[in-house]
Design a protein that fits this description.
Helices cover 30% and strands 31% of the residues. It has ten helices and 14 strands.
Amino acid sequence: MFSNHAGINITNTKMQVVEINYRDNVFFLEKVDQIFHSEHFSPELPTEKIILLLQNSFDKLNKRQSIFSVNVSFSLPNNFFKIFEIPFDESLVKKDLLEHFRWELSVLYPHCNSESFLLQHIEINKSELIKEKRAIVIAVDKHHVFAINQFCEKNNLQLRFIDNVHLASNAFLYLEKPLIDNEISLSIYIDQKYSSVSAMDGVHPFYFKILNPSSNNIFIELTETIKKMEDFNLSLNDFKRVLLYGQDIAEEFEHKLKNFFGLPLKKVNPFERLKAKEEIQNNPFYKIKYNSFTAAAGIAIRII
């Protein structure tokens, strides 16, 4: 059962909020807004600083229009996560599987204490393209989760989910699930620095990569992604479309991406399936900046 739910996307520079209600079998958009942080939001900030920064941004947003939902979920930028793909033995029980993932995390990121991370994984053998048991592992520092939970308690909010910005944006695929079950597609999340690319079989991701933030040319990174698809016996011709999410995507860049892939490219509008009041329809975030809110809206419609 879906109840009022606010999705809050935290970028390195701003807080974005999308509030959704569900009634009469329809999703209603109640609020879409954003505010710039008073300072840069980064993984290095201590807990107290994170809570203060979130509180300052939240207070500014609430001055314009209060959030009515008690239930809230957050999406965080790619640089707040360690994400990797590994094979695993399906005979492992849940506890042993978690330890296996922790061990891999300690090997891949030796400077990190693997015990200080919360881990989630996506089994990618759900796609027929994957012949062995493999998983995409997503790790987030407990310190960041604790800070967000403390912020929620301070504001009498119930924390439901915390997710990666790109994976939260992919939630819209579930609304189209019957239509895309046999489709192979790419999705790209463009951020100020930490962009990412994902390949999916229907709604199931089988490849995920955070692009090199030091690269001066995103198309070199995307070329490597296309090359990687050969591991799955895929070429670009096997992909049905490219889905585009992200922050402040220029029209010129959108055209360059379309020409680069030579595939139908959809700049996702997260509000097109939501009913909205006239005052929201006139909101520039709704009319013009809609693509920047895919993560906030995606985590807001998440119900499982």
